[in-house]
Specification:
Elements (H helix, E strand, L loop, with lengths): L1 H20 L29 H18 L2 H8 L1 E2 L18 E5 L27 E7 L3 E9 L7 E10 L4 E8 L13 E4 L7 E5 L16 E4 L2 E8 L4 E8 L5 E3 L2 E3 L5 E4 L5 E8 L4 E6 L3 H7 L3 H26 L2 H7 L9 E4 L3 H8 L4 E6 L5 E5 L5
Antiparallel strand pairs: 1-16, 2-4, 3-6, 4-5, 6-7, 8-11, 9-10, 10-15, 11-12, 11-14, 12-13, 15-16, 17-18, 18-19
Helix pairs in contact: 2-5, 3-4
Length: 392
């Protein structure tokens, strides 16, 4: 047994010696696997410190834009301009050799006795401006009829049916004006304008087949409102799509202003609506006694231009300006952390304040941007809110 053990020990020593001579195989280090979409640390979102001020500027610009309201010009450019059902039968010549005369029942319809002048006299304002005028003194108040024509040429007298003028006091001077070359516009008559500086006996109304009671001059719902500079306007919605006719009349009377100007039998303008409740705009210029009808505008543009759209948006913007301005002023003047910290406790003015748990109302104030915390005074026991100052 001893010999056998000695042999075993010798074999073990030889095996250990061989093992020590063998090189040690080092295990290769596996490269680190990186995943593109692996978890990563989220960066905090940037704080928008002046978002109230930026929103206030937006509200200011919006309010100014919609108070100025530039949309009517855009709407008129997009609108369909109405025309009379038939072309006007008479268009006076621009510069007749015989000049222009006014005729009427106040001067026995004499086609040559009352010429219009463009020399700065007889009521004409500016000599040589192409606008012809004449002042006539009326002895008795009444409604008088008149027309304008190249002197003695009845076949080119306008309007086709006699115009009218209202005299309201004895010996009243009335100036008649005729412009034979009006600049292009949406208003009718297109090429000329005739008017008188009288006073209408009632307000002007839009009269036509679109009214609930057709051609009703006493309908106050279609009365036209002044919009400045002697102009009047009615923006109304037409219930059903169809083709309609209209002119401007005098409330409760038969006289009106149509495609040929003032007339006892006004020539209407024709317009067509394409969808229910489409807005149309009827315009009247009292300085020249001409009218226009606009239709075919996009609903949103007509709402902004002639409806309540611009005023509603301007009102919302003004409300936003008031609320944001109040909040910004309150935060910058009243809710200043430095001031509140320097003031300390509102009861004893001590600065020995200790933070305590916030209530629900404190969290709600924080949500709307007021950084409040709740404190307790260690001197007098007061508990309440203070604006939180981060560096304190």
């Amino acid at each position: 047994m001893d010999e056998q053990e000695a042999v075993n020990e010798e074999v073990a020593e030889q095996a250990a010696e061989k093992a020590s001579r063998r090189p040690v195989k080092r295990r290769r280090r596996q490269p680190e696997r990186r995943y593109r979409f692996g978890p990563h640390k989220r960066q905090p979102l940037p704080q928008l410190r002046y978002w109230r001020e930026a929103l206030l500027v937006v509200f200011l610009l919006t309010a100014v834009l919609f108070l100025i309201n530039p949309f009517p010009r855009l709407a008129q450019a997009r609108a369909t301009v109405s025309r009379p059902p038939q072309p006007l039968a008479v268009t006076p010549p621009a510069e007749p050799d015989v000049g222009y005369c006014i005729v009427g029942n106040f001067q026995e319809w004499n086609g040559r006795s009352t010429p219009l002048v463009d020399d700065g006299t007889e009521g004409d304002r500016t000599a040589g401006d192409g606008i012809y005028s004449r002042t006539v003194i009326f002895a008795e108040p009444d409604r008088y009829l008149w027309r304008v024509m190249p002197c003695g040429q009845w076949e080119t007298a306008v309007p086709e049916k006699s115009a009218w003028v209202f005299v309201t006091s004895p010996n009243q001077p009335i100036t008649f004006t005729f412009n034979p070359a009006m600049p292009p516009s949406n208003l009718w008559p297109r090429s000329y304008a005739l008017t008188a500086n009288d006073t209408l006996p009632a307000r002007v109304v839009a009269v036509g087949s679109f009214q609930a009671k057709r051609w009703d001059s006493e309908d106050a719902r279609t009365a036209m409102e002044p919009i400045g500079n002697g102009r009047y306007q009615l923006a109304t919605r037409i219930p059903l799509p169809n083709t309609y006719e209209t002119y401007v009349g005098i409330q409760g009377r038969n006289e009106g202003i149509g495609a040929s100007g003032r007339s006892l039998e006004p020539i209407p303008l024709e317009f067509t609506t394409e969808f229910p409740a489409e807005m149309i705009v009827i315009q009247y210029d009292a300085r020249t006694d001409r009218i226009a009808v606009l239709s075919g505008m996009p609903w949103w543009l007509s709402w902004l231009s002639f409806g309540w759209g611009a005023r509603i948006i301007a009102g919302i913007s003004i409300l936003g300006i008031f609320l944001l301005g109040s909040q910004i002023g309150y935060r910058r003047v009243v809710l200043r952390p430095d001031w509140q910290y320097n003031a300390g406790c509102p009861t004893c003015e001590a600065h020995d304040l200790q933070r305590i748990s916030r209530e629900t109302s404190d969290y709600l104030l924080s949500l709307i941007g007021v950084p409040v915390r709740r404190y307790k005074c260690n001197q007098c026991g007061w508990e309440g809110r203070r604006i939180y100052r981060k560096h304190h």
